[in-house]
């Protein structure tokens, strides 16, 4: 670049950054970004623009908007330009690696990362987005980019020739192609749609037939796009054989020691792309073979010897990739084996080619190698088995990747379903022996289930097969009949089911970046719902004055305490149910209604706790309908007793809460106050889903269906009024509540939280309140990014705030434990939302928000630390809080224990700690200095979290704001020993005047912040906080100083000092307050004297300033 360009680069790049952070129109932002991306002479602007696009982290709508405004085409040009520069720099010693070329290459990498993001969630994006990507010729452009780099003949040549940036470009490009190939359009684009007829080989065993097919192939002149062939050649030739890198070995060792489920694609990818940039071509092969054209490409024989001297199919060339590490300590790329195993599994969907796969390609050994372990086999087991499966002894290790093992087992299962002769081939190869030993140590239930299905095929008696089946045809017609196409066309139904089931799961396993879609409601986990009976416990009703025993899970009957109002309510409910059953209610048809009390009331009564709300669940009646009848019944009973006025007190108005599935409220509910009790009426429900919608349709259900749709097993209990018994339809609720003390969901936890994401917070509140633990399945679902996203976007902030309020207050609340669970489960980012733009809060850190909003108040190093460790830092602060509260002897109600202080009654009525906000102030400490720009005003991020994130009352928002603003002042006080000097009194008094009722809470939070800042949990800091509290309350008598009336009001000041009405009165009022803080025993005369002196000094300063300005103007 020229010097002029360099001099203006900083200002221009700042303009790019401002474009994405200001509140200007979105269309204008897209237009500006497009302009910067298309700057022909400014590599720095293109680089900053690609960073901005990448940082936007667009969702589906943003992706469509960016593509509509031409950003995609501009990114492709940037990619091509950077790829060309990177390719030209390889081996060109005369080419200088200046800053401009580095920026061009980096911009290309940023653009590739953007496309990788867009395509990584392609299954959740519309076909329109995929079509746009393909219309822009993304596939051929990326292929051309990859092929522009030198073709290496070995992996060692890759390491010596390709630069780090070149490897990144190749790796990202192939990753994008792999994502696009998950769709049919993308797969066909890569493979090509015109293929020769000889692509698939039928079940022919005779060698002359095989030679005939290969001769036909060599004579075929039909050509296809060379895309896959050229990429395949590089993929095969650059296979890593040995990698001499100590860091990689250590990282691989760590991953190998970790549980298989904990190893993610990103971890493997980050480790391997410097050594294997072509690794994602394996995923392309797996994805593209989901379509028939892809399988035909892989299984075909090349058309000429020139293209493949070995004369074998693509599949046969790729089988060596399945070889496991030579020893346990060796390192090989699991990405390749995962992709190739998935490709083989997909090829096994071609049933007519099963014999060719087994006998010509000999895929049995490659499939069994990832499943074979170090077990010592019996001599009989080794006979017929490939020696590669057992000769290495202890060095033989099963593949660490679950997906690879699953692909191999599914491929074997597909082969088992292709006929008896092929099953015999598998038996001869001792497939059962390998599967048996693998199943004994298999950790994955899905893999183990597939192994058991294979074993059932391989061990069953083949005699007596049904007449007319494919196996019977083989018996009668001989081997020639078995290997013909006609034989495979008579495949039994059970064999088709295997293929259909595995084909259904292909989309879930074909790409590691796809999140499984749980939009369809799962079936109940019972084989015959009509035969399910609940666990029941008879109920003995006891009065409030009677001694009640503690209920245990082993008890045959439970004791429940009912007060007079509850007895009256339940009696009226049963009367209404009987009248409905007898057809005695005018305007309503005769029907039997089972009335059950559901949910929290049952749970708390079993535990012996008081509860005030009752939820009524009805089987054959809607909540609104039953509530209307109930109201009529209560009012009619009151009239019969000549007590019309009392009827209004006994039964209130009916309120209807409409269903709102978009906000996770799936059920219409009628609410009414009866006999002083808040009662909710709703029908038992079951939820069904339309094929094209994620919004459930709620229909009337059974008690079993209703129980399984509730949030937690302990809340799925019912008290049946007619049978006077507790019903546990999930058969786990009572045990979880009374015995194992575990919070778990009736159905799969992910689906339960997907239905209503607020349940993740309810789980925490219940676990803390009832001293229970969270189940492993529930904890994993809580940490799922999709649940974080839905909690942030799908649930109203009022509901989130209400749930959080339940964790902070109440008799059994434990805010410290609750806040720790919120942070440890990575939910804090979805609870305490940050300001717009509303980007996805995934996990515990606020990285996306902090990069997209112009926050102020921290330097760059602190911001980087905050992005990485915000909520982890909050957890550490929460650990310190109990020490400070204990040191100050804070009681549960927020007051401080005064036994150690000699104080009078006036001092005893002092400001308490806000027991709710003190916990929020500590957990939000990492954000206390962050600010953001809103409508050209600087605002505090903590204020936004309180007001808009959790929707707390305005009183709480103002209190938290004053606490946040007073933190630094209190921390300065804590750095020195308290004294009663006028200066200390003034500083402390000003602090109290600014924080008012929150000053004690601020003292606690500031002490925690100071201890965390010093990385020192010492008693001396707690003692210092206690000393300052004692000094302010007792020695300085400053508590409630903000509410004390001034000695001179505004009118007095005007008369005394001759002031005019206006701002000047406020100046002297403030000076009066400051003087009184420094002179608590000063008289009125002394105050007047001070104010007059202050007035003289102020007038002198104003005259001096006026004379100075006059002189400057004269000059």
From TrEMBL:
Residues 170-405 form the Protein HGH1 N-terminal domain. GO terms for molecular function: ATP:3'-cytidine-cytidine-tRNA adenylyltransferase activity; CC tRNA cytidylyltransferase activity; RNA binding. Residues 596-741 form the Poly A polymerase head domain. InterPro entries: PolA_pol_head_dom, Protein_HGH1_C, Protein_HGH1_N. It comes from the Eukaryota. Residues 411-465 form the Protein HGH1 C-terminal domain. Residues 462-514 are annotated as: Disordered. One of its GO terms (biological process) is tRNA 3'-terminal CCA addition. Keywords: RNA-binding, Transferase. CDD domains: NT_ClassII-CCAase (cd05398). The keyword RNA-binding applies. Belongs to the tRNA nucleotidyltransferase/poly(A) polymerase family. This is tRNA nucleotidyltransferase/CCA-adding enzyme.
């Amino acid at each position: 670049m020229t010097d002029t360009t360099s001099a203006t680069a900083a200002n221009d790049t700042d303009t790019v950054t401002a474009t994405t952070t200001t509140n200007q129109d979105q269309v204008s932002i897209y237009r500006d970004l497009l302009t910067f991306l298309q700057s022909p002479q400014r590599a720095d602007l293109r680089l900053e623009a690609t960073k901005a696009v990448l940082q936007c982290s667009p969702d589906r709508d943003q992706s469509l908007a960016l593509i509509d405004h031409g950003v995609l085409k501009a990114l492709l040009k940037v990619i091509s330009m950077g790829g060309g520069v990177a390719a030209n720099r390889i081996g060109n010693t005369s080419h200088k690696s200046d800053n401009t070329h580095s920026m061009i290459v980096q911009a290309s990498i940023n653009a590739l990362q953007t496309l990788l993001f867009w395509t990584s969630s392609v299954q959740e994006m519309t076909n329109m987005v995929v079509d746009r990507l393909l219309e822009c010729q993304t596939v051929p452009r990326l292929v051309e980019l990859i092929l522009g780099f030198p073709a290496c003949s070995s992996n060692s040549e890759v390491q010596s020739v390709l630069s780090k940036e070149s490897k990144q470009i190749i790796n990202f490009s192939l990753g994008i192609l792999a994502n696009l190939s998950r769709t049919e359009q993308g797969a066909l684009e890569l493979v090509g749609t015109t293929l020769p007829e000889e692509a698939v080989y039928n079940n022919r065993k005779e060698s002359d037939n095989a030679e005939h097919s290969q001769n036909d192939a060599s004579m075929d002149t039909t050509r296809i796009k060379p895309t896959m062939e050229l990429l395949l050649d590089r993929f095969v030739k650059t296979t890593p054989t040995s990698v001499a890198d100590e860091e990689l070995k250590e990282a691989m060792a760590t991953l190998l020691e970790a549980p298989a489920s904990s190893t993610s694609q990103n971890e493997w990818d980050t480790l391997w792309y410097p050594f294997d940039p072509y690794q994602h071509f394996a995923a392309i092969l797996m994805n593209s073979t989901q379509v028939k054209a892809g399988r035909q490409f892989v299984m075909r024989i090349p058309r000429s010897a020139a293209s493949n001297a070995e004369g074998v199919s693509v599949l046969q060339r790729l089988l060596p990739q399945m070889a496991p590490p030579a020893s346990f300590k060796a390192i090989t790329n699991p990405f390749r084996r995962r992709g190739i195993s998935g490709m083989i599994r997909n090829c096994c969907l071609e049933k007519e080619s099963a014999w060719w796969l087994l006998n010509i390609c000999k895929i049995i050994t490659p499939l069994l190698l990832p499943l074979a372990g170090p077990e010592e086999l019996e001599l009989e087991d080794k006979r017929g088995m490939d020696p590669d499966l057992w000769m290495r002894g202890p060095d033989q290790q099963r593949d660490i990747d679950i997906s690879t093992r699953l692909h191999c087992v599914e491929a074997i299962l597909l082969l088992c379903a292709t006929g008896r002769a092929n099953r015999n081939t598998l038996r001869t190869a001792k497939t059962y022996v390998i599967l048996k030993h693998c199943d004994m140590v298999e950790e994955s239930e899905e893999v183990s289930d597939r192994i058991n299905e294979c074993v059932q095929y391989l061990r069953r008696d083949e005699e007596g097969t049904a007449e007319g089946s494919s196996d019977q045809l083989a018996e009668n017609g001989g081997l020639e009949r078995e290997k013909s196409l006609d034989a495979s066309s008579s495949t039994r139904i059970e064999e088709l089911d295997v293929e259909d089931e595995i084909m259904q799961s292909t989309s879930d396993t074909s790409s590691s970046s796809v999140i499984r879609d749980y939009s369809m409601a799962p079936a109940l986990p019972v084989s015959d719902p009509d035969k399910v009976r609940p666990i029941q416990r008879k109920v003995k009703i006891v009065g409030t004055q009677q001694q009640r025993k503690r209920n245990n899970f082993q008890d045959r009957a439970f004791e429940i305490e009912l007060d007079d109002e509850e007895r009256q309510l339940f009696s009226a409910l049963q009367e209404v149910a009987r009248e409905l059953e007898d057809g005695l209610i005018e305007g309503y048809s005769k029907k039997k209604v089972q009335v059950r009390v559901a949910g929290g009331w049952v749970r708390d009564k079993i535990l012996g706790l008081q509860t005030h709300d009752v939820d009524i669940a009805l089987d054959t009646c809607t909540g609104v309908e039953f509530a209307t009848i109930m109201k009529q019944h209560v009012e009619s009973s009151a009239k019969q007793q000549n007590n019309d006025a009392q009827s209004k007190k006994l039964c209130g108005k009916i309120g209807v809460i409409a269903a709102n599935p978009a906000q996770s409220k799936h059920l219409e509910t009628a609410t009414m106050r009866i006999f002083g009790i808040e009662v909710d009426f709703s029908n038992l429900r079951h939820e069904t889903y339309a094929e094209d919608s994620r919004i459930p349709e709620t229909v009337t259900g059974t008690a079993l269906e209703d129980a399984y749709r509730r949030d937690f097993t302990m809340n799925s209990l019912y008290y049946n009024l007619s049978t006077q018994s507790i019903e546990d339809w999930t058969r786990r609720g009572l045990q979880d509540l009374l015995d194992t003390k575990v919070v778990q969901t009736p159905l799969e936890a992910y689906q339960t939280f997907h239905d209503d994401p607020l349940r993740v917070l309810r789980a925490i509140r219940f676990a803390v309140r009832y001293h229970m633990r969270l189940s492993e399945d529930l904890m994993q679902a809580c940490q799922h990014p999709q649940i974080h996203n839905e909690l942030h976007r799908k649930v109203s902030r009022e509901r989130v705030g209400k749930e959080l309020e339940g964790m902070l207050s109440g008799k059994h609340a434990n805010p410290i434990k609750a806040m720790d669970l919120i942070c440890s489960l990575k939910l804090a980012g979805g609870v305490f939302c940050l300001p717009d733009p509303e980007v996805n809060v995934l996990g515990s850190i606020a990285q996306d928000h902090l990069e997209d909003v112009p926050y102020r108040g921290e330097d760059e190093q602190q911001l980087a630390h905050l992005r990485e460790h915000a909520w982890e830092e909050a957890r550490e602060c929460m650990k310190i809080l109990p020490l400070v509260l204990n040191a100050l002897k804070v009681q549960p109600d927020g007051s401080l224990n005064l036994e150690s202080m000699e104080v009078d009654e006036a001092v005893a009525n002092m400001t308490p700690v806000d027991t709710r906000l003190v916990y929020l102030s500590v957990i939000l400490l990492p954000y206390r200095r962050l600010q953001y720009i809103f409508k050209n005003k600087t605002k505090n991020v903590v204020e936004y979290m309180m007001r808009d994130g959790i929707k707390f009352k305005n009183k709480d928002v103002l209190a938290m704001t004053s606490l946040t603003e007073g933190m630094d002042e209190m921390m300065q006080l804590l750095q020195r020993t308290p004294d009663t000097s006028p200066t200390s009194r003034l500083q402390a008094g000003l602090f109290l005047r600014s924080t008012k009722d929150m000053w004690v809470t601020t003292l606690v939070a500031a002490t925690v912040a100071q201890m965390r800042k010093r990385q020192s949990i010492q008693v001396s800091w707690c003692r210092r906080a206690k000393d300052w509290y004692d000094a302010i309350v007792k020695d300085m008598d400053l508590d409630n100083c903000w509410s004390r009336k001034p000695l001179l009001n505004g009118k007095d000041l005007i008369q005394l000092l001759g002031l005019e009405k206006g701002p000047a009165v406020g100046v002297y009022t403030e000076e009066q307050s400051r003087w009184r803080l420094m002179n608590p025993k000063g008289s009125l005369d002394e105050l007047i004297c001070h104010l007059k002196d202050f007035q003289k000094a102020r007038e002198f300063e104003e005259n001096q300033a006026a004379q100075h300005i006059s002189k400057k103007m004269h000059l």
